[in-house]
Every structure is written in C-alpha cells, then in structure tokens.
Amino acid sequence: xxxxxxxxxxxxxxxxxxxxxxxxxxxxxxxxxxxxxxxxxxxxxxxxxxxxxxxxxxxxxxxxxxxxxxxxxxxxxxxxxxxxxxxxxxxxxxxxxxxxxxxxxxxxxxxxxxxxxxxxxxxxxxxxxxxxxxxxxxxxxxxxxxxxxxxxxxxxxxxxxxxxxxxxxxxxxxxxxxxxxxxxxxxxxxxxxxxxxxxxxxxxx
Length: 205
Fold this sequence. Notes:
Blueprint: E1 24-32, H1 38-45, E2 54-56, E3 75-77, E4 81-86, E5 91-97, H2 108-112, E6 117-122, H3 131-139, E7 144-149, H4 159-166, E8 174-177, H5 182-204
Parallel strand pairs: 1-5, 1-6, 6-7, 7-8
Antiparallel strand pairs: 2-3, 4-5
C-alpha cells in the first residue's frame, strides 16, 4: 500500500510521552503469588494506560491452579503487566508485573532481567505464596521490599510476626498497602527507592 502524505502519522499518544526533563529511567518488578494484587497495583499507579496480559480463567486450569483464598478470581496474568510512573521531574520507573501462576514462571527470567529492584506483594491468607518470588529475586540478585496487600477481611498480624513467618532479614523493608489506591502503591515504590538508595550508600562506605 502506498503511503498517503495527507494521512497523519501514527505515534504514541501525547499522555504517553516521557517528560522532557527526564534524566533517568529504571526498571522495577512487581512480583508475588497468584491473585495477590500485582496487576491491580500496576493499574492503580501507572500514569499511562497500562499494558496487561490478563486472560479469562477456563476449565483448563481446574486442578492446576490453586484458588484457595481467591476463589472469586476470574482472570489471570499470562505474561506480564507493564506501566510507568514519574517519581519526580528526572526519574521515571517502568513497572513490570510478573505472572503469579507456577505454570507461567518460565517467563520470570525475562521479566526480572535488568531490574533495579522489586516489590514482593503478599497476602496474609497465603503468606507462603511469597516465598517463590523472594527466592527468584534473591537468586537473580535483585533487591526488594515486601508489601502486605490489605485485603478486606484478611487477618492482620504484627509486623514482627510477619517478619518471622516470611523469614525476612532486618534490612528488608516490610510495609502495608492497599494496591487499589494510587497513593498507597506510590508509597510502596518510594519505600523501594529509599531502600535501594540506602543499600547503595552503605556499600559505597
């Protein structure tokens, strides 16, 4: 097909363009178990229309996917989620959400490659689901913070008990959040940035 000079060129939407003042962009991963709120966090905090790869769950997943505690979930991420947030005039975070189901874990290496840091979301009803994410990030040398997503009706435990249950070292930040809220999700990312800065500073000393 010949190009028609009168037709406008298709490019990124104006709201998707990076601010002119941007000096640095970094990759951050949002990881965790199945149904813990990764897609919700990326959607809530992204300043651009997020890319999601959610598909409707079908009978093929029966007996394969563990729906304990998330029986009402009807969709699942099959590749990754992607969003963007500008933290200040100079720093932009690109957010990559990992798939939570074990049968899609083969995609993790590509998602976490090159990440500066990560957020591991956990649900107090299924704390054990956070261990695979933390293990993969530790193996990949990716520093992370842990955020407890406060689901309605989920049990609430003291931070010390959660640290013990998750076997978290003292230097790993543990925070609560509501992944549905922009301000709460942004605070989690700011906690991660402070953690990365403090870690880099202490290594330099």
